[in-house]
Amino acid sequence: MNEVLGVHDLRVAAGRQQLVRGVSFSVMEGERLALLGASGSGKSLTAESLLGTLHARLSRSGVVEFEGVDVTGTLPQDRAGMAAVFQATATALNPLMRVGRQFRLAGHEHRDAAETLVALDFDDPDRVLASYPMQLSGGQLQRVCLAMAVLRRPRILVADEPTSALDTVSQAEVVRALRAATGPGRAALLFITHDVALASGLCDRALVMHEGTIVADEDFTTLLGRTGDDYVSRLVAAARAMSGVDS
Ligand SMILES: Nc1ncnc2c1ncn2[C@@H]1O[C@H](COP(=O)(O)OP(=O)(O)OP(=O)(O)O)[C@@H](O)[C@H]1O
């Protein structure tokens, strides 16, 4: 299996404040990898560094390689092969334009858009394409954004908290769609979330971030089997308690 993304000693700082402190990891072709961690641990700054969208006020060092090529410092639009979806779907779509027109403006034929929507579990794609964004639910909007990302045929999809604003039924729909869009023979996935239980149902391997560093990089079976008193074990125990596995 080939490496699709390599991150080497990534550091992000705001002035003297170190926010990401030497993060290194790799994502293999078709792999689904979770990036877990509490709020403020540095997950989004890491994602922004990969995508080239880091705020200009922040300083960055380290290397990002995409399919073996150093892309550090290139513009987001020059990172073809990477796509992303975010928590805030409202800012990703134009609220005043029908969804179908937005697909067309992005260069996608009606038929391709409809087929992709069906692959992502929509049973009436024509209705979706004829709708304005506000006529769709949060989960449907996220799957529309995912369809737009998938149509770019990415080698890796970065999904930054795509389910955090959703109810549990919509979360499950989006997770199903992410599973359909990624995996062996399709795009790799970097799924960024604080929800350990949700990530364990989708991803095979997990990175755990804490205060700007990676404190665990292991498969989910190993992660969920942790019983110690360290930060990662306590995070897993809290997730188990939340999902009712311990009760
Ligand atoms: N532009 C910025 N300038 C200064 N500090 C920032 C900036 N962006 C983020 N930070 C700080 O960097 C730290 C990491 O932020 P980041 O958004 O990466 O966390 P996160 O793990 O994604 O959290 P969340 O799950 O809440 O999105 C936080 O303390 C945040 O306040």
Question: How would you portray this structure in words?
Answer:
The chain has 247 residues and is of the alpha/beta class. The protein has a single domain, classed as P-loop containing nucleotide triphosphate hydrolases (Rossmann fold, 3-Layer(aba) Sandwich), CATH 3.40.50. Helices cover 32% and strands 28% of the residues. The strands form 2 sheets. It has a 6-stranded mixed sheet with strand order 6-7-8-3-9-10, with helices on both faces. A hairpin with a 2-residue loop joins strand 9 and strand 10. The termini are far apart. Bound molecules: adenosine-5'-triphosphate. It comes from Propionibacterium ruminifibrarum. It is an enzyme of class 3 (hydrolase). It is a peripheral membrane protein.
Task: Label this structure with key terms.
ATP binding; Adenosinetriphosphatase; binds adenosine-5'-triphosphate; Rossmann fold; 247 residues; four-stranded antiparallel beta sheet; six-stranded mixed beta sheet; P-loop_NTPase
> CATH H-level name... which superfamily?
P-loop containing nucleotide triphosphate hydrolases
Arithmetic mean pLDDT: 94
As a percent range, the share of helical residues equals: 25-40%
Summarize the biggest pleated sheet: 6 strands, mixed
Query: Element order, helices and strands?
Result: EEEHEEEHHHHEHEHEEHH
| Distinct ligand kinds | adenosine-5'-triphosphate
Shape: globular
How many extended strands?
10
Low-confidence stretches are: none
CATH architecture: 3-Layer(aba) Sandwich
Strand order of the largest sheet: 6-7-8-3-9-10
How large is the share of residues in beta strands?
25-35%
CATH class: Alpha Beta
What is the rounded distance between the termini?
40 Å
